[in-house]
Records
---
Amino acid sequence: MGEQQQVKFPQEVVDEYAALGVDLPALFSAGHLGTRMGVQIIEASAERVVGTMPVEGNTQPYGLLHGGASAVLAETLGSVGSMLHGGSSKIAVGVDLNCTHHRGVRSGLVTGVATPVHRGRSTATYEIVITDEDGKRVCTARLTCLLRDVRPADAEIVRDAG
């Protein structure tokens, strides 16, 4: 659980980051928390980010998928979309996340799909729809990220991530 598989990126994005010596799968991953929770990013572009997460290991005391786990999946996918929209000269920082939980899930895999609501110069907002294996909506979330310029200290972190 938590192993990163190969993420599909648009070729122009791969080329942009490769020129900077940055490993895209490492940079645009679910990070340590997402790895512990088994988040897998399947597809990533500024137009659409898709990821999955197992229910097992991410439940609350009643055995249902924890709402916080859905929030982690949603914020991960929306952040990746925002980072890809901002490009290599911007850092995406989440400033607002809201989640509405529609139904409980006890097993299997949930899938999140993030699509843009707004992509501007200084902010990006994504809607994230999380569904169960039957395609039933489990959670609807919205994430807004601030897009700020990369600072010298940020550039070192980005290079070290690759």
Note: Residues 30 and 76 are 6 Å apart (CA to CA).
---
Amino acid sequence: MNFRVLAGMPTSETEMVLAARFEELPSTDLVAIRNSGTALIDAAGEFPELDVVLIHQDLGPASVLDTIRDLSHRHPQLAILLMSPSLDPETFTVAMEAGARGVLSADSGMSELESRIAKAAEWSRTLRRHLESAAHELPASGVRGRIVTVSGAKGGVGTTTCAVHLAMAAARRDRVVCLVDLDLQSGDLPAFLNLQHRRSITDLVDASDDISPGMLAETLYVDPRGPHVLLAPEHGERGEDVNARAARRILSALRSRYELVIVDCGSNMNEATAMAVELADSAVVTVTPDVPALRGAQRLMAMWERLQIRAHDNVHSLVTRHSRKNEIQPDFLRQLLGTKVLRTPVPAAYRALEPGENNGDPTKVTDEGLRKAFARLAAELDLFSAPSAPGTGGRSGGTTPSGGMSPMAAALSSRSGSSPSTKDVSGFLGSPSSGTGASSPGSGPGGHGGWSTGPSGRGLGG
């Protein structure tokens, strides 16, 4: 396959010159030319299997170095070459520091242009193969990973913030982590992680009966900071395509390839999030210490219990925006909710979160109190431990009846006009630990009478 190149040229004149030169390069395809940094960044996410991005030094309106930084952050597998009228050491240094792969003269000859593009493209393809290989690796032979869902009592209680920082904390401890955005109508992980990716969970729906490792590698975004990411659809209406059966298959595929799958369920329940909560080894509800959030949490957990998705006493509540000055303190909150409350609350450090959220980079949150809180929460939820091998008595995911749907999923499916599946969909990819036997409704960690995971239901310390 020819090397695929995207270019950013500031004027129509430079665009025409470059296009004419590429017509004489048989081994290279110039897929598009854009005339602004913003358009170039957008195009990088539109064209599959790009190898090289050429950027002219005069490309605007923003600084070309800012454009290079943004591109290298969003698409670390792309080789970026800066075309500059001058090749002085300072230009070379600042370009490399921004994330460029190299600098070449704007009036380079044909042989030099072809050679530099070929070398950059080979580097890009080697890195891409490395990232895809990392996405294919099983966490351990025959071991299923753990699924942890994070749901919000209502909007604005920090659900996505907690899911992101828990995933980052586990990745820092060398766990193989996948972060899933199952807030299908309003998922916002791209803003929290400053990423653009043309694929989402809906690309796996049609193939949900046979999800290959290649499909996962193509659909997931490999974040160089740690977790791999499966995004919600860009257009919220596409979220309706992810029904309970598709959600089960997709999450089972991820569980077979990752040690830990953290699912951001948002604050709205649907077929997909109901299935995720039922499959989960641990279900967490984020709640702020105020009456509207407490009522929202009570309604959500009561609905889970009525519909036999998850027993009330098998849910962990996570307190966010905690302060000693709050009128409602953790002990009282535990009594009201009647559920396990994680001992570590997330402090009300709004400004300390701003650097991470405004820059789309969780690593910029340097507040020691917040970092320690998320690390302690991850430890309480046992996110740092490797999954246990089959037959060792370790935790593994819960099972649902052989029909593959809970009463909630069946009820929602009947409303939408589809029929519940009667096929046994356990044991995706032939994992020996996938629990192929049918179980009675409500068994396992997601139903009544199931064993619980994580810490005991003690009040929050301090």
Note: The chain is about 35% helix and 15% strand.
